[in-house]
């Protein structure tokens, strides 16, 4: 992705606390937990305002981050982690839920708009750029006239839960490929 000594900062977005653990909006936290298990680390409080764990993903130095703030205020802790680890935006990866993709669809991109995602909006504002990498996990559109904000704050359905572990694993694989193989190769493998 960048030079061999660069650190990839991988941010899983979500909301803190047990009330939100199983919400669609917390898929970034769930994938970050899977990645932490792969490197054999545990999240610990970091002075950036996030929980973090350092390790190696397929031999590449990486820091996993879960902001302790609510989703809409993720920018401060993410910018703090990026600054602390001296990571350029092109080495920042944000894992988040995506309403415009069917459940379980994984898409990887660099930059672009926030599509109404307040966590991404906060990060872009705090960093002063949208040019960071994103691993988007499809959660689908809300049924009927349900407000999208209410939908993402609901737990995954019983049907979705049956496949959730598989898709979390797949999303972690895509993130790892992005770190080790770069954007184009990861897109070719997972799109």
Could you explain the architecture of this structure?
With 191 residues, the protein is α/β, with parallel strands linked by helices. It has one domain: Peptidyl-tRNA hydrolase (Rossmann fold), CATH 3.40.50.1470. It is 37% helix and 22% strand. The chain is built from six helices and seven strands, in the order βαβββαββαβααα. The chain has a seven-stranded mixed sheet with strand order 2-3-4-1-5-7-6. Helix 2 packs across helix 3.
CATH superfamily: Peptidyl-tRNA hydrolase
- Helical coverage, percent range: 25-40%
Low-confidence stretches: none
Described by the principal axes of the CA atoms, the overall outline is: globular
Q: Quote the beta fraction.
A: 15-25%
- The whole-angstrom Rg is 15 Å
Class from helix and strand fractions: alpha/beta
Enzyme class: hydrolase
Protein name: Peptidyl-tRNA hydrolase
GO molecular function: peptidyl-tRNA hydrolase activity; tRNA binding
Keywords: Cytoplasm, Hydrolase, RNA-binding, tRNA-binding
Task: Give the structure's gist in a few sentences.
This protein is of the alpha/beta class and 191 residues long. 37% of the residues lie in helices and 22% in strands.
Task: Annotate the secondary structure layout.
Layout: E1 8-12, H1 27-39, E2 44-46, E3 50-57, E4 60-67, H2 75-84, E5 92-98, E6 106-110, H3 118-127, E7 133-138, H4 148-152, H5 158-181, H6 183-190
List keywords for this structure.
Rossmann fold; seven-stranded mixed sheet; 191 residues; alpha/beta; single chain; 6 helices
